[in-house]
Amino acid sequence: MSGTFVGMPAFPEAAREAVHDQTLRGNLRHATHTIRAKRRTAVAEVSDWAELREAGKRIKDHTLRHLDRYLVQLEESVTAAGGTVHWAADAGEANRIVTRLVKETGESEVVKVKSMATQEIGLNEALEEEGIRAYETDLAELIVQLGKDRPSHILVPAIHRNRGEIREIFAREMSEWGRPAPEGLTDTPAELAEAARLHLREKFLRAKVGVSGANFMVAETGTLVVVESEGNGRMCLTLPETLISVVGIEKIVPTWRDLEVFLQTLPRSSTAERMNPYTSTWTGTTDEDGPRNFHLVLLDNGRTDTLADEVGRQALRCIRCSACLNVCPVYERAGGHAYGSVYPGPIGAILSPQLRGTASEIDASLPYASSLCGACYEVCPVAIDIPEVLVHLRERVVQGGQVTREGNKVVLRPAKGHAAERAAMRAARWAFTRPGALRTGQRLASRTRRFHPRTLPGPGRAWTGTRDLPPVPAEPFRDWWHRTHGGKDETK
Amino acid sequence: MRVALFLTCVNDTLYPDTGRAVVKLLNRLGVEVDFPVAQTCCGQAHYNTGYRYEAEPLARHFSDVFRDYEAIVTPSGSCGAMVRELYPRMGERARAEGRGDTLATALAPVVPKTYELTEFLVDVLGVTDVGAYYPHTVTYHPTCHGLRGLGLGERPLRLLRAVKGLELVELPGAEECCGFGGTFALKNADVSAAMGADKVRNAASTGAEVLCAADNSCLMHIGGTMTRLRTGMRPVHIAQILASTEEEPAA
Ligand code: SF4
């Protein structure tokens, strides 16, 4: 994924700063609670939501199971419709393909529709190195780009910014990139939106190359689908002469009919809208209308490896609605940057360690970035059991085992740094399979209870830094049971 | 009916009052309850931290201890969910790893017979008014594994509403996790503490004297945060409220 994240510290350290940043906490709390409530209402309106969720899950599972077949079908239909299909095994290959395609047009700038896949591969940075400027045209994405910032949310990448901060960024940075912000810009939403509109308009009208992702690809017809709210997508997809779409291979659906399900569940889950304002579909190229050249870059980048894992593969059902982020109590407090990936929140915690592996500090810590409260699973429109995958990935971290990397089966060793924990878990298992040992430990704790400190040293400080310890009772329950025969001989 | 109390290792060691309350309550409702002394731990902490192989012998031990009872009652939503939801999954995983059916078969008998306390009261005994008396203002926090894992729904609230003298006040943001999450509380202490503090602030805003839940692990975290933040509220397990009577009132 993007080089920006190399060398990220583990999640707990990365989150610490965010937890204590009151402005950020306020911004995130306000934004996530608002969208959370709206989503709940939008979903409650649909009487067959549970069935739609199940249908979405099944369509995705079926497609993933027969992905080889559907990918070939897609390639054939896109080619038949006048498009060109490219296959990219990893980020580097995808970036090279896109760079070459842009250079072949002789252009040195592109307009972009918000796309997670191009963020994942760090396309903007790769193009920059080759002297090609990529302009983000989604409002929130523009804010991130102008602010030289990193995205912190899938759908609202600038969710960590409030209006005042956005005004600041516009006033300061817009002139560097093109049309400056209007004089005396205030932080009212209408003025900010107008400033962005004017700034972007000249880019749309000038651009000869557009770069996008896609929400769905329909195998039977070779049609790509982008859903969005601002109309910038429609501009980027129709005005340029050349359109290059970089799409993860898991974004396929077999037929148009399957879209029926997702075009209901996606907008309600993501923006809490009944229907998203713009749904653009295109099939190859059409004479006298839209781009003359269409290139589809199909991106693997760890996806087939993920597909090889029986438990983890469900992460590939994700339609990037971001409902799981909005409802996540950990995301709300840690913010998106702590996840060290363009995929933050619960989905990021299960996707990044699969796409990138668990070798780095951040990726090995992500499966633990959850209290397993299950709120994400409850809202997920394709029923990804995120807690199940988190626990599965924790096993991978502490126990090691077989995984697939770049198509090859490899055996991972248990991660370092868990030795003390592993010993403690073993010791506990030993005691818990011997009730006598447990009783001895309990009695010891009860007898020494007057000497227990209120605060603990070492790792125990993680608890007592903010919370008191419960007092240890004079006798454990089992001794009381034994002494009183289940309370029958209790003398009051 | 032969009913066993699975108290859980945490309650046995740290919260014996909860165990005594369950026994008292069930006896009052005419249920003879046994406490098989060989019981230890369901293996939840092991499983959820990634040590599934260490959890397997604990699950087998659990099944050995409890399999002959007709019902297994536990005053913990998360340990109940461990047995009901995750024991079958452990069996499936072992099968998928080519280790055959033995684990699944060993664990199968206890899965459908394990009930969280409020489920047992409402679904099996069919009571919502347990004849309790508790003259205090109470707010109820539905713990995540009870709420989303077991789907306890309204059961605890129905039981609490029937308690004489009890004034139930709604907890804002009730369904948000308190931040305990087992080893999460240690591994991600800052985020966990922030979640706990928000939960406690919400609880304090109700003006209730007592925050009630059906899981002492979460209450240990919430209660530890309450005393540290000096809110003056106290955490009480639902069993202790339901066991309380006019003759023998609980605090
Ligand atoms: S995991 Fe589910 S809820 Fe989260 S973004 Fe993906 S589809 Fe949406």
UniProtKB/TrEMBL annotation, chain A:
Residues 451-492 are annotated as: Disordered. The keyword Iron-sulfur applies. Residues 476-492 have a biased composition (Basic and acidic residues). Residues 315-384 form the 4Fe-4S ferredoxin-type domain. The keyword Chloroplast does not apply. It comes from the Bacteria. PROSITE patterns: 4FE4S_FER_1. Residues 393-483 form the Lactate utilization protein B C-terminal domain. Keywords: 4Fe-4S, Electron transport, Iron, Iron-sulfur, Metal-binding, Repeat, Transport. Transmembrane segments: none annotated. Residues 73-298 form the LUD domain. Pfam families: Fer4_8, LUD_dom, LutB_C. This is LutB/LldF family L-lactate oxidation iron-sulfur protein.
